[in-house]
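Example record used in the benchmark description.
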Amino acid sequence: MENIVKSKDNPIIKLYQKLSSSKKERLQYGLFVLEGLRITEDAIKEESGLSHLILTSAAAEKYGDMLFQTDLRNARTVVISNELGRKISSTDNTQGVFAICRIPQKKNMIFSENGKYLVLCGLQDPGNVGMIIRTADALGIDAVIMSGSCDLYSPKVVRSTMGSIFRMNIFTENDTEKLFSLLSENNVITSAAVIDSNAMPVTECDFSGRQAVFIGNEGNGLPEDISRRCMSKIIIPMHGNINSLNAAMAAGILMWEMKRFG
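Model output (structure tokens):
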């Protein structure tokens, strides 16, 4: 195979590594990275602005026929050595499939009738954020709103979404005042997920109409000023010796309960 890139100083490889390691670089270039066959296929299928497809020589032999049959007219394909693929990989056993995607332009939030929304307020664990987005996709949540949470386009978040990042409506609004104003203007009922014996058990909540549930930081929960501004406080009833759940697990239960009302 000819023209195999072997140097880490290749401009595209240097760009990939910058984007992989730095939020600042992702914002500057308006690009983010992918690693893995499945998520790259999802990006191509969902027409998600692929700018570069990077394959190791082994991956090109194994997956090339399948990937090259897809519409890659707007993407540049680069084949690199297997050794270089191992160097730029963020996993122990890389498939040798990498890509660079364009970050979508910021969209205005659209609130559908009877829409169900989850607000991630201050979440910092990329695995939790990615799993929540994936679960929201599976359950048919209308949108996830990021507020003061970790970088949506970090490799760990993207990988944890398992492709749902390309299918879900995901908005970012870090200004609390703007966020609550927007929800109020669109008649969205807000609930704060808290650990408070006086809160309403989620199993007893009426989630009819437009609803947004706020879920807080993994260690500290929701800030008091946020929970106070929500229209109600809700809790997941628990038994035994545990009084809190992993953020992604809690979010899954809350979204399931919301979707029981449409």
